[in-house]
Design brief:
Layout lengths: L21 H6 L17 H7 L9 H8 L8 H16 L5 H28 L7 H19 L9 H12 L5 H11 L9 H8 L4 H9 L4 E5 L14 E5 H7 L4 H7 L3 H17 L5 H14 L16
Antiparallel strand pairs: 1-2
The protein binds zinc ion (ZN).
The site of zinc ion (ZN) has 8 residues, from β2 and α11.
Length: 319
């Protein structure tokens, strides 16, 4: 989707002072700030760093569960479901680690995943009838190779959604009919990701080390600094251009404009308001500078083509 994004020039932030240092901004994660985009509570990145040093996460599942349990309530939905599945299994197999437990479930989840994937691939293959000959031939080849991977119980290289979509984009790049192109890519984007389907999480993570599986259960919740104007579009790397977002939302946005992020996350304006209200509360306690909130409002407003208009009037009400 090509949308005109606002540039740092029309945000008029050139002469503004940087409202918060990185340290001050990071400090806000101590106060259960909800993600700007999905609204879920975020984990302080330093707590995550400490957890990543925990050796026991790679040991028996029962030990790893004890360490992760305090974070269960901030896990994202798929991760929480997998965590609960692991909890249940660890009672039956007390000596196994996370990887061994996921391997026990791999076959059944892989079957479920392949079912979803193949129905999407069928839909994509249908377009061979409409595409120009050369593209149709390339598409046929891609689909044959992909089917070989997903129907092989031990493929040389596992299926990668990202690589598949990349190859598909290449095949479609010379197609002039934009609507058709978008339609095919939209179908491909429905391919399950480990972040939105338990079966995809189990299959993908059963290949990882047990301690990595444990960390992946909480990683989406880790708080990050999101570049509002992406770095690749010369966005600044300071609090004039940083918003607090969970690692999942930050990674899913890539370098798309905020307006596209809102299209994909219709509750984002609502969630951004909740974050702003929380920041206003903190500013009244002297924990967040009001200039940061004012700048955030302004930048979001312009970058979203006026679609995200935070109400920060409470910032000026003194009780
Ligand atoms: Zn989020």
């Amino acid at each position: 989707m090509e949308k005109k994004a606002a540039t740092p020039d029309n945000i008029k932030c050139k002469d503004l002072e940087i409202p918060l240092t990185r340290k001050e901004l990071k400090n806000l994660f101590n106060y259960r700030i909800p993600c700007l985009c999905c609204g879920k509570e975020m984990l302080h990145p330093d707590i995550y760093m400490k957890l990543s040093e925990e050796k026991s996460l790679g040991g028996k599942a029962s030990e790893a569960i004890k360490i992760l349990e305090p974070f269960e309530k901030i896990m994202h939905p798929v991760e929480r479901q997998v965590f609960n599945m692991l909890k249940g299994m660890s009672q039956k197999y007390p000596d196994k680690n996370f990887k061994e437990l996921l391997l026990l479930k791999k076959d059944v989840h892989e079957l479920a995943l392949v079912k979803i994937q193949s129905s999407i691939f069928n839909k994509i293959s249908f377009y061979r009838r409409i595409l120009p000959k050369k593209s149709a031939r390339h598409l046929r080849k891609l689909m044959i190779n992909t089917n070989d991977i997903i129907f092989d119980p031990q493929p040389h290289k596992p299926f990668s959604r990202r690589i598949f979509i990349h190859k598909l984009k290449n095949i479609l790049k010379n197609i002039e009919n934009k609507k058709l192109k978008d339609e095919i890519l939209e179908i491909a984007r429905r391919l399950p990701r480990s972040s939105d389907e338990v079966c995809a999480f189990v299959v993908k993570n059963s290949r990882k080390r047990p301690e990595v599986i444990a960390l992946d259960l909480i990683h989406p919740s880790v708080g990050t600094f999101e570049h509002l104007t992406p770095k690749c579009m010369k966005g600044l790397s300071n609090s004039l251009n940083f918003a607090l977002e969970c690692s999942y939302c930050n990674n899913s946005r890539h370098h798309y404009p905020i307006s596209v992020q809102i299209e994909e996350n219709p509750y984002m304006p609502h969630n951004a308001q909740i974050q702003a209200d929380k920041l206003i509360c903190l500013s009244k306690k002297g924990l967040c500078k009001k200039e940061y909130i004012e700048n955030l409002r302004e930048v979001l407003y312009w970058l979203s083509d006026r679609g995200l208009d935070l109400d920060i009037s409470k910032l000026y009400i003194f009780e």
